[in-house]
Specification:
This protein is of the alpha/beta class. The chain is built from 15 helices and ten strands. The chain has two domains: 2-309, D-Maltodextrin-Binding Protein, domain 2, CATH 3.40.190; 356-438. Strands 1, 2, 3, 4, 5, 6, 7, 8, 9 and 10 form a ten-stranded mixed β-sheet that branches. This is TRAP transporter solute receptor, TAXI family.
């Protein structure tokens, strides 16, 4: 019983300590700081990243940093390298969902579709460009190398057979720097939300929007492209020149918010709650509402995002986890039961071995007793002092040998062992008295 109490007193604290340690090491936490890769200053991505930074900082009470980038491809690289925790991406980077060998996307998960990003081609009015096919031999701003605009521009020019017929300028058409390439572009291809500050600035200049012919065919040629109509005057209205001057048929991608696949559930839930449970939509009226985001299924979402959009799935996951917990609990108790069984078996075998060893030692003790009896008989027949001294030495050797070999505590506390020691002592005393009389 005492051993059981000791075992329980050792096992229970270890289980509790292990559970606490496991929870502490595996619990979801928010990174510090939370870094967001957005886009270039003046673009819709940077504006959204800036607003998300402020709302998220206020809600999570953590440092949040909006990082300026050239766009989608740089954001993707920074996200993969772990430089940022959240990134804005164009859906153009997801060309083939069935391509498991795409190393660029294996570690990335989308958590939210944000808003539509129409493809807009703006041309200078004085350039004489009236349609997409007039871009031949023109200088076209196609966006920096690591931008999603660059990818879109390449696909667009290829679709219209203009890949080798234009001069590409790797800059944004709305670049407000002193770079001379911006002023030398005849036309610019742009991909961003309708509320981008760049479009408002463009409305003050001498540009016009070009319609994309065969918009439906273009939308069907690439994944995640959809037909889109630019409303008349959406960028600029009276007293400025109307931009666009009429409804323009084009196509649009979807702006996405992404994290790494190993991102914590705490981070994903906090970001999604910031998007859908704050007044962020006031600044971004084109932001897809929660209902539409919940029904959006173009790209498989992060598992935590799926649970966020679908509470029933969250309950299913919870139920699955509870079942798993129950299974683990059963395994744990089965392990304890098996361990207890083995402990009982081991204890039983140990006791049997102790009994066997004790029996062997008792037989040895009986042998030592027989030796002392034989020596007692021998001294009774002896009258020689030398022989009696020899008998005393033999008795002492038997006693020492018994003490060395019979080490079992239970045996030493046994009455038979005490009798043996007493017999040795009395026999030596008796021989010494006899020797005194013989002298």
């Amino acid at each position: 019983m005492e051993q059981k109490k000791i075992l329980i007193s050792l096992v229970v604290p270890l289980i509790i300590a292990g559970s606490i340690g496991t929870w502490f090491c595996t619990r979801d936490t928010l990174s510090d700081p939370i870094r967001i890769a957005s886009g270039s200053i003046g673009g819709e991505y940077y504006k959204f990243g800036d607003a998300l930074e402020k709302k998220l900082r206020s809600r999570a009470r953590r440092p949040v940093k909006n990082i300026e980038t050239t766009g989608t491809m740089e954001n993707l690289r920074l996200l993969k390298e772990g430089v940022v925790e959240v990134a804005l991406l164009q859906s153009i980077i997801f060309p083939d969902l069935d391509n498991d060998d795409d190393d660029e996307l294996n570690d990335i998960s989308v958590i939210a579709p944000l808003y539509l990003e129409p493809v807009v081609i703006l041309a200078r009015k004085l350039s004489g460009i009236e349609s997409v096919y007039d871009l031949e031999n023109m200088r076209v701003c196609t966006g920096p190398e690591e931008s999603g605009t660059k990818e879109t521009s390449d696909n667009l020019l290829k679709f219209y057979g203009l890949s080798d017929k234009v001069t590409r300028v790797p800059e944004f058409f709305h670049d407000n720097s002193s770079h001379n390439d911006r002023n030398s572009c005849d036309v610019g291809i742009m991909v961003m939300g309708l509320r981008s500050p760049c479009y408002k600035e463009m409305g003050k200049t001498d540009v016009k929007a070009l319609e994309l012919p065969y918009a439906r065919a273009l939308a069907e040629s690439k994944a995640f492209l959809a037909e889109f109509t630019l409303p008349e005057g959406v960028f600029a209205r009276h007293p400025l020149p109307v931009l666009p001057h009429k409804n323009i048929q084009t196509v649009a991608y979807t702006a996405l918010l992404a994290v790494r696949k190993d991102a914590s559930s705490a981070l994903v839930n906090e970001v999604l709650s910031t998007i859908y449970r704050t007044d962020l939509r006031i600044d971004f009226p084109d932001l897809l509402p929660l209902k539409e985001a919940r029904e959006w299924s173009e790209i498989p979402l992060h598992l935590t995002a799926q649970e966020y959009y679908n509470p029933l799935r969250r309950m299913e996951v919870f139920a699955t986890r509870m079942e798993a917990f129950a299974a683990v609990k059963e395994l744990f108790f089965a392990f304890l039961a098996i361990s207890y069984f083995f402990w009982l078996r081991f204890n039983e075998l140990r006791k049997k071995e102790e009994i066997r060893q004790n029996d062997i030692m008792k037989e040895e003790l009986d042998g030592f007793l027989q030796e002392t009896i034989a020596l007692d008989r021998k001294q009774m027949q002896s009258e020689s002092l030398e022989e009696l001294r020899s008998i005393i030495d033999q008795i002492t050797e038997v006693k020492i040998k018994a003490l060395e070999e019979l080490t079992n505590e239970k045996l030493r506390s046994d009455q038979m062992f005490s009798i043996f020691l007493m017999q040795c002592h009395n026999l030596i005393f008796k021989i010494q008295n006899k020797m005194g009389l013989l002298r």
